[in-house]
User: What shape does this take?
Amino acid sequence: MRAAAAVVAALTVLATMLVALRLGGRITASAAALLLATAGSSPFIESFTLSGELLATLPAALSLLAFVAWGRRRRPELLLVAGVLTGCAFMVKQSALDAGLAVVAYLVWTMGRRALRPVALFLTAAAIPVAFGALTAPSLGDWWYAVIAYRGQGDSLVTGSVTWRLHLLWLSFPAATKALALVALLAAVGWRRSPLLARLWLGGAALGVVGGGNFHAHYYIQLAPPLAVVAGFGVAALWERAGQVAWAACGGTAAASLAIAAPIWFVSGAAQARAIWPHDPHLVQDGKVAGYVRHHTRPTQTVYVLWAAADLYYLADRAPSFSYLWYRNVQTIPGALPKAEAMIAARTPVLIVAVQAPWAMDRSGQAGRILRAEYKRTKVVAGVPIWGRREHRVPVRSVQGPIPG
Assistant: This one.
């Protein structure tokens, strides 16, 4: 997965460089590539992980490249390619509409009523991957909920507490600053010089980051390619004004990005996890917990992480006994919590790893009562309680008292 992430990142740098070359020339392209390859690879925005945001940046950048080629040649097949790639980016990650939004806005802005035909062609092509996914899904209703409705109903900027969303933004802001602040300064220099399409691309990427609502660090990867392109125009502007100062600023930004990340290259894995995920302490200890689970279960048996730590299933090489792997899934999807409680009551998992306390999700105490009736705490590994099945089942109603933390 790390190798795949590196390959996708390298291809994204190449695609972004070609977009910058078509829009602004060699200086802009060289600067954009250097900035994206350094600042965009910062571990503080989790660029080393094979996230949906990273995977979606590649078809998005390629979509812009095809559209720029269409702008020069006006060949309809290039616009079709751009649309299909935008649809692919959306199918990888629903926030990856930055290229599509930029293309549509650019066409409408520059062509007015004449934009109707190219916009229709572009959107029709973009709908092809989406339609293919919908029509080949086992259940169209389930597909619609997973791809479209889930975010809008329970896990987006417009749902939930505004205060909580601002808190999440505040928590993620230091990581984004370490990775992209210096590039943003160069982008500010190049904003007026940069073409409309590049600015619209950056605006679309910003909407994608904000629209996600949860402001995880890897969300900001979506900003990196268009931000690097606009920053490339900043370097080009400095070149015209001050010559070698431009490359000093570009090289200094790249070097500073590496210098900020360098201290965590040479420390232990646990220390790296603490630096990159300061608000996810379980990631520091998950290796030890996964080792215990792996040595106390058979490969054919399933386990459950209460309520969520999806990496544990991978690290322990054990299948989950429940279909939802993330905390917000259980919290927001209708019927997910009762299904989880029913799964525990049926004693489906061999082990239950209580990364979060039962009451964190279910304030009524029902989940805790079911857990104590059907399972007993057998071990605490790195501060994480692990529960195994009871030999003799205890009626749920007989389990009283406070829920263990």
